[in-house]
Specification:
The structure holds 2 protein chains of 2 kinds. Chain A has no helices and 11 strands. By secondary structure, chain A is mainly β. Chain A is globular and about 50 Å long. In chain B, strands 2, 4, 5, 6, 9, 10 and 11 form a 7-stranded mixed sheet that branches. Chain B has a 4-stranded antiparallel sheet with strand order 1-3-8-7, with no helix packed on it. The chains are: A mainly beta, B mainly beta.
Amino acid sequence: EDKVVQSPLSLVVHEGDTVTLNCSYEVTNFRSLLWYKQEKKAPTFLFMLTSSGIEKKSGRLSSILDKKELFSILNITATQTGDSAVYLCAVEAYSGAGSYQLTFGKGTKLSVIP
Amino acid sequence: DVKVTQSSRYLVKRTGEKVFLECVQDMDHENMFWYRQDPGLGLRLIYFSYDVKMKEKGDIPEGYSVSREKKERFSLILESASTNQTSMYLCASSLGGSLRETQYFGPGTRLLVL
């Protein structure tokens, strides 16, 4: 059974801190790893990672994938209160006949205090 | 441990058929959600429910309806399936109160409409 584990489950930091969120996975036929930010009703897409070692960056957020060690990290520098949210990691895996499955981790709840 | 189950992993239907997707959660969660996930578009919210018999439209409700007769069960209905509804459908639930609570996702249903 495919498995995605995020750590820590929750985190409280002060504004300006840098945080690193972890996502490890065990899947068969890996296709991609996705990061989402969930603060309202629906999670917002952040990154899709398919290749090892290539950092994706968007403002203060960045992410990298290690397909050998089967994990990804999401970094947020100079955190702001608006970064408070649950960050979800999901892994897509091929499941045959051109289709794929998506497995979500339980999320990391980040709270940024002023 | 929260468990969210979906009635089918894979479904193949014909254009014009009525389709029922069922989702069940076992943790007495108040909120339940239906999303679809398409390549390059991330997760898009179709409908959500914050209580039995209560529902609200998400971002893309057209062509879908929902039913929540019991707290643990949230059904997504495609009244007349169309090919552009071929997608991965994900159900999620969260504890209640705030919509910022962590959402727990089911394994997904891959629907193909021919």
